[in-house]
Amino acid sequence: MNANLLFAPKSAALFERAKKVMPSGYTRHMAVAKPHPIYATEADGCWITDAEGIKRIDYVNNFSALIHGHNKKEIVEAIAKQAGSLISSILPSESEIKLAELITERIPSCEEVRFTNSGTEAVMIAIKAGRAFTGKSKIAKMEGGYHGQFDLTETSFQPNPGNWGDESAPNSVASSFGTPQSVLDEVLVLPLNNIEAARSLLRKHADELGTVIIDPLRLQVGLVEPETTYLEMLREETEALGMVLIFDEVFSLRCSYSGTQGLRGITPDLTTMGKIIGGGLPIGAVGGKKKFMSVFSISDGDPKVKHSGTFTANPMSMVAGYTGMSLLTPAAFDSLDRISLSLREGLNKIIVDLGVAGHVQGISSLNALILCDKPIRNYRELVSAVMDGFLDRLGVYQALLMDEGLLTMRGGFILSTAMTQSDIDFTLEGVRNALIKMKAM
User: Fold this and answer.
1) Mean pLDDT of the chain
2) pTM attached to this predicted model
3) What CATH number has the domain bearing residue 393?
4) What average pLDDT does range 202-211 have in this prediction?
């Protein structure tokens, strides 16, 4: 049990109020904690303060969105200035052009961009574009892959051994009660990192399959990584079969100046984005090559895909996003890479020194200490690890890190440009103390 949670009367009182007006007291399930969540009151840089006045280093950064940490001066000033002139309007503003120009200059697949209000919405619009371009309604996604709160792409997000079917040809399994079978029938589920099985499925369903989507960096919030050879196979097969390949970089865009696609040298047809491109405010975007983005064009009459939204490309998110992204220079990424490497090296030393079963993985600012002795290559191996007590160990570990002043989730350490080497040193000391306490239990 997290000692801080036992002595958090202000958070406990807030949770009692929340339970009266929200289902079980929550408005997003990823924030669930027992016996109640810790409520935040303020933050600055890489430190976040809870309702009890306790400060912790924030290694969640709102699920990777806050790449500059909290209250970055330049972003706060840009937001304040924009709020004093124009918050939202039906009319477009120059700010959306500036952010679109920045994205198209950096991200290899993005010759054109359209903005949305979230990563989930970006995925929905990108799939519409893929269907419109190919004329085929069926999509393919990875077993265990996450692409937002959308029943089509939630298919087989967390299936179980009782319903997931054959390893080489997984079933399409609903993630929410009430999902129509007709939705599931539109999804082909691919086994991650099984090149030959996935290739065979793509070819078998080529007549009805038009769009393939994958996060090129992470599956299950950072616990499983698609191998480069697997991504290369997807690129090769989708091109040969006339399918649209979508890289969902809502999460993974932060791993380099040009995203995961730039880092790995594999260019998709469409890219979905969000999180870091909003400077901390709500945002999403779909970018891609002109021929695929042409489905939104009105040059020859009605578009094949109609897309709008009350807050789409709102000036506040555009200005915050442009400011934040402008600060993400190659030098800023180099700095993130250096302190991230220092963190990974320190974590590796700790588990060797203490004889802890685990391994460290990471790319740039996205890092994790996984408390099992071998890498997890796909969703089913993850489930096997969970059944072997992985999640129980992770829960204890995460609670102990909270006591050490470290806010983490699922063993992940998502860094921000606000962090320094002294923050890394503080973190490594906290991790060592937490693991020593775990061993003594």
Assistant:
1) 94
2) 0.95
3) 3.90.1150.10
4) 98
Residue 47 pLDDT > 80: yes
Distance, CA of 245 to CA of 268 (rounded, Å)? 5
Structural domain boundaries enclosing 427: 3-67+329-440
Beta strand segments in 7-87, E: 40-44, 47-50, 55-58
How many Cα atoms occupy the beta-carbon half-sphere of 434 within 13 Å? Answer: 30
- 273: CATH: 3.40.640.10
- DSSP secondary structure of 166-228: ETTEE----SSTT--HHHHTTEEEE-TT-HHHHHHHHHHTTTTEEEEEE-SS-BTTTTB---H
CA 65 – CA 274 distance, rounded (Å): 8
Looking at residue 50, what DSSP letter applies?
Answer: E
Q: What is the number of domains present in the chain? A: 2
Tally the C-alpha atoms within 13 A of residue 77's C-alpha that lie toward its C-beta: 4
Q: Which of 222, 219, 218, 281 is nearest to 60 (CA)?
A: 222
Integer angstrom CA distances of residue 284 from 119, 271, 305, 438: 5, 11, 17, 40
**Arithmetic mean of pLDDT, 158-184:** 95
* Rounded CA separation 144/128 (Å): 22
Indicate if 83 and 61 belong to the same structural domain.
no
CA dihedral over 301, 302, 306, 308, signed as positive or negative: positive
Is the pLDDT at 180 greater than 70? The verdict is yes
Say if residue 184 is in the same domain as residue 248. Answer: yes
> Could you check whether the bond before residue 216 is cis, i.e. omega within 30 degrees of 0?
no
β-strand 412-414 against 366-370: which pairing, if any? antiparallel
Are 338 and 290 within one domain? Answer: no
**Which residue is associated with the tokens 């064009």?**
297
Rounded to an integer, what distance in angstroms lies between the CA atom of residue 180 and that of residue 436?
A: 48
